[in-house]
Amino acid sequence: MASQRSELRHPAWFRYTNKGMPILENIAAIAKGMSITFKEMLAPTVVENYPDGQGPLKGAKFQERYRGVHVLQRDENGLEKCVACFLCAAACPSNCIYIEAAENTAEHRVSGAERYAKVYNIDYNRCIFCGYCVEACPTDAITHGHGFEVASFNAGDLVYRKEQMLAPMPAHIGANAVFNQDEVAAGAPAVVTPGE
């Protein structure tokens, strides 16, 4: 019986012990990681041709869900969607949005509601691009655009005003000279007041 047990045992150099097993696992993990490293070292480098690439993004590529510089949207009539409800400023964890409201009048209509944002500033020195302001907006007036070139040597240049973030007028209103070149060339005003 004792001879059968000795035959079933592995040789002394093949024995697994509690101390030896973790060492073998560690060596296997390091070998696996180094194999990936060596594969990547020998693979060709893939780079984006930024800033010398083609198109408005200069060769940069990003996902559709990318959160870039904010855009203040307009409705189909060219009026601003922002109604100065201050929900975006209240939702902002970094307190980087500053708004001053003003009343719409019959002569000076800026938005479709009673009020509009007379001043709308975002301080990109503080903004963390979390998207809480976009989610809080009940009128979908503020969205994340795809602008990504916000670096500056001057901190004052990183405070974006309403005029810098406001979406251009819709092409069917006449403000967009790129899409309405014939109409503008024929004498149509480049900017039509909403409602005309």
Keywords:
single chain, Alpha-Beta Plaits, 196 residues, two-stranded antiparallel sheet, elongated, disordered C terminus
SSE layout and pairing:
Elements: H1 2-8, H2 20-42, E1 70-72, H3 87-91, E2 97-103, E3 115-123, H4 132-136, E4 142-144, E5 159-160, H5 162-165, H6 181-185
Antiparallel strand pairs: 1-4, 2-3, 3-5
Provide a descriptive summary of the structure in words:
By secondary structure, the chain is of the alpha+beta class. Among the domains are: 70-167, Alpha-Beta Plaits, CATH 3.30.70.3270; 168-196, no CATH class. It contains six helices and five strands. The protein has helices spanning 2-8, 20-42, 87-91, 132-136, 162-165, 181-185, and strands at residues 70-72, 97-103, 115-123, 142-144, 159-160. Strands 2-3-5 form a three-stranded antiparallel beta sheet. It has a two-stranded antiparallel sheet with strand order 1-4. Mean pLDDT is 82; it is low at 192-196.
CATH architecture of the domain at 70-167: 2-Layer Sandwich
Strand elements, count:
5
Q: What is the helical fraction, as a range of percent?
A: 25-40%
Radius of gyration: 31 Å
Order of helices and strands: HHEHEEHEEHH
**Biggest sheet: strand arrangement:** 2-3-5
Low-confidence spans: pLDDT under 50, at least 5 residues?
Answer: 192-196
Largest beta-sheet details: 3 strands, antiparallel
Quote the average pLDDT: 82
CATH class category of the domain at 70-167: Alpha Beta
In terms of DSSP E residues, the strand content is: 5-15%
Tally the helices: 6
Q: Per the principal axes of the C-alpha atoms, what is the gross shape? A: elongated
Query: The CATH topology of the domain at 70-167 is what?
Result: Alpha-Beta Plaits
Quickly give the structural class. Answer: alpha+beta
Task: Give the CA-CA distance, first to last residue.
Answer: 106 Å
